[in-house]
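ok posting inputs for the 6-O-phosphono-beta-D-fructofuranose job
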Amino acid sequence: MRVGILTAGGDCPGLNAVIRASARRLLERGHEPVGILKGYRGLAYGELRPLDYRASSGILHLGGTILSTSSYDPFREPDGLDRIRAAQADARLDALIAIGGEHTMDITRRLHEELDLPAVGVPKTIDNDVVGTDFTFGFDTAVQVATDALDRLHTTAQSHDRIMIVEVMGRNVGWIAMHAGIAGGADGIVIPELTLTVEELAAGVARRHERGKNFSIIVVAEGAELAFASGESRTVRASETTDEYGYTQLGGIGSSLATELARATGYEARVTTLGHVQRGGTPTSTDRILATRYGIQAAEMVFAGETGRMTALHGREMTSVPLAEVRGVKQVDLRLLDVARTFFG
Ligand code: F6P
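and the output
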């Protein structure tokens, strides 16, 4: 079989580990892995490259993706489907492994259903918001980067009478904020799934001061709203422009929250926005292992003809779910908030 492999949407640590694992399992069984460049754009425009032993080795520890990525969506382009149909025949692909987030899984499902493209999805994203799997690869690395930042900010915060706000990524869910906040000992965690008002945060800061703690660290997810006790709430956006998938650019809530908390408490506030640092660089060992397991599983699913499905981690088991069930976004398990709250204020 000739099996295409592509990475689509935003990059994340561990993509190369999946490419390597799928390619290696395909090669060892006598099949031909083919790299498709720049996500679905590369399929539509015939940008392919061989993924032999040489091309797929030495990449396990590398961040980013050797295949490049894009947010090209054939269903949003006038000639997208015709191009994919023609490319499938030209490239003589027997199957496709598409590594991406929720939007890529949706494109992959539609191509499987509408064009009969035998495809398997692999869930990636630092946001951990893909429905149907417990964890996406990339998430652990982002949480580790954010946790390291919180540890560093603790020491400088302690030296001043300051509130430190740390804005983390996560799009419309608070997984990175919640995990990094618990791991890094945050004094407040603000996520999109649950409203925490400026007044509630200020009260927590005041309680800490009463106990002799002269600093506070607050983690805020980029997709959270700025909310007040009056019921007023504001959405903060870095920009209203959208990418090819139609996503708006998030970011900026950290600065707004710092201004409001300084006003409400009378203490100085500083903001650190971690941004794309969370997505770059080498994957953690946990992400390398998860990505490798996903890559092997995807190849096995191709062999077994289990297409139209996405690889999934359920507990400790590697399994799969129908792409048709991968809809919407997976929100934070709010039981974690109960754990985190023990340490607020
Ligand atoms: O989905 C991953 C992610 O890093 C989000 O956490 C973030 O909102 C978004 O992508 C940033 O996208 P871009 O790289 O297009 O700025």
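notes: The longest helix spans residues 139-158. The pocket of 6-O-phosphono-beta-D-fructofuranose is lined by residues 10, 101, 125-127, 169-171, 222, 243, 249-250, 279 (CB under 6 Å).
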